């Protein structure tokens, strides 16, 4: 069984509560969404078809237990579920970055799902699958990538109406180079929000480029 893979690389985890951990990233090709801020549009096409067994062999070369499956939109290839299962069976600690437009309920329960809820200013609000919020487990995380003060207020209100912070940790992240991290930090403090504010560590380390 093959998946279309854009890149497999080893880096410092730059997002989620796993930030800072040496991690192998498996970036699958393709995404049905077009968030205005997407930093990974280069993965919308291209890449090569690779057998799942060969993906695991490549991951093993890096000698780390942390693996993140991302994209593009990894769940857009339905056989991604077999990759996630095989990685868990092999003993890796696996996280999945998903944009929330596809049902997460079939994802292997050993995987930590980082569910990105798309905001109004992302341009992709219409594609959120809201039932995903009912499938969260305590080892998952919900993430809001914020384009503006209006997005922040929208996310803050959604947190309270859906009691999301009671289900799992919540991440608030500014769109890189667009929302000031200092402003976001001050908004979070002013509203005493129960969220983890974060910036993309890999971009502080290496700037915005593929393979990091
Ligand atoms: C490239 S996406 C791939 C996974 C999936 N398609 C998704 O959107 O979650 C990985 C993460 O990077 C975030 N991201 C993309 N572009 C960004 C930017 N310019 N600034 C901050 N975060 C960004 C996304 O919101 C998402 O949380
Ligand atoms: N270093 C690093 N950490 C990341 N965490 C999530 C990423 C992603 O693109 O999904 C990512 C990425 O692209 N690079
Ligand atoms: S869902 Fe993820 S990969 Fe797709 S356009 Fe949005 S940020 Fe980029
Ligand atoms: Mg990235």
TrEMBL record:
One of its GO terms (molecular function) is magnesium ion binding. Keywords: 4Fe-4S, Iron, Iron-sulfur, Lyase, Magnesium, Metal-binding, Queuosine biosynthesis, S-adenosyl-L-methionine. It holds the Pfam family Radical_SAM. Its EC number is 4.3.99.3. S-adenosyl-L-methionine binds at residues 37-39, 72. Binds 1 S-adenosyl-L-methionine per subunit. Its cofactor is S-adenosyl-L-methionine; [4Fe-4S] cluster; Mg(2+). [4Fe-4S] cluster binds at residues 31, 35, 38. Mg(2+) binds at residue 40. Residues 18-208 form the Radical SAM core domain. Gene3D superfamilies: Aldolase class I. GO terms for biological process: tRNA queuosine(34) biosynthetic process. Pathway: Purine metabolism; 7-cyano-7-deazaguanine biosynthesis. CDD domains: Radical_SAM (cd01335). Substrate binds at residues 12-14, 27, 70. It is an enzyme of class 4 (lyase). InterPro entries: 7-CO-7-deazaguanine_synth-like, Aldolase_TIM, rSAM, rSAM_QueE_gams, rSAM_sf. It catalyses: 6-carboxy-5,6,7,8-tetrahydropterin + H(+) = 7-carboxy-7-carbaguanine + NH4(+). It comes from the Bacteria. Belongs to the radical SAM superfamily. 7-carboxy-7-deazaguanine synthase family. Homodimer. NCBIfam families: rSAM_QueE_gams (TIGR04349). Catalyzes the complex heterocyclic radical-mediated conversion of 6-carboxy-5,6,7,8-tetrahydropterin (CPH4) to 7-carboxy-7-deazaguanine (CDG), a step common to the biosynthetic pathways of all 7-deazapurine-containing compounds. This is 7-carboxy-7-deazaguanine synthase. It comes from Methylotenera versatilis (strain 301).
